[in-house]
UniProtKB/TrEMBL annotation:
<protein>
    <recommendedName>
        <fullName>arsenite-transporting ATPase</fullName>
        <ecNumber>7.3.2.7</ecNumber>
    </recommendedName>
</protein>
<comment type="similarity">
    <text>Belongs to the arsA ATPase family.</text>
</comment>
<dbReference type="InterPro" id="IPR016300">
    <property type="entry name" value="ATPase_ArsA/GET3"/>
</dbReference>
<dbReference type="InterPro" id="IPR027417">
    <property type="entry name" value="P-loop_NTPase"/>
</dbReference>
<dbReference type="GO" id="GO:0015446">
    <property type="term" value="F:ATPase-coupled arsenite transmembrane transporter activity"/>
</dbReference>
<dbReference type="InterPro" id="IPR025723">
    <property type="entry name" value="ArsA/GET3_ATPase-like"/>
</dbReference>
<feature type="domain" description="ArsA/GET3 Anion-transporting ATPase-like">
    <location>
        <begin position="1"/>
        <end position="116"/>
    </location>
</feature>
<dbReference type="GO" id="GO:0005524">
    <property type="term" value="F:ATP binding"/>
</dbReference>
<dbReference type="Pfam" id="PF02374">
    <property type="entry name" value="ArsA_ATPase"/>
</dbReference>
<dbReference type="GO" id="GO:0016887">
    <property type="term" value="F:ATP hydrolysis activity"/>
</dbReference>
<keyword id="KW-0378">Hydrolase</keyword>
Amino acid sequence: MFFTGKGGVGKTSLACATAIHLTASGKRVLLVSTDPASNVAQVFEQTIGHQITPIAAVNRLSALEVDPSAAAATYRERIVGPVRGILPDDIVAGIEEQLSGACTTEIAAFGRIHRAAD
């Protein structure tokens, strides 16, 4: 389930409330935020960060805050790293340029979510 929309519309509040509701019905829930200014830790009054973290106050609920920029950098390095030093520098620079857009950040963030779900 994804909660999207512009800032200030209640995405975090709805996501947290939904996560709690789902755990109350017996489901295990991983709540993931890709907001660089995530407030999920503030809602649950505990540090979350970039690793899956059990929420102390809610059984069966864990949370993860994905840093989209860091995820994109890791993704780019996974793509470019193996060819750096093999391909000419201008080709590597071109590949890095192609991987510098917002779509790469989104792909990398969703990749991080996918790995967390495994």
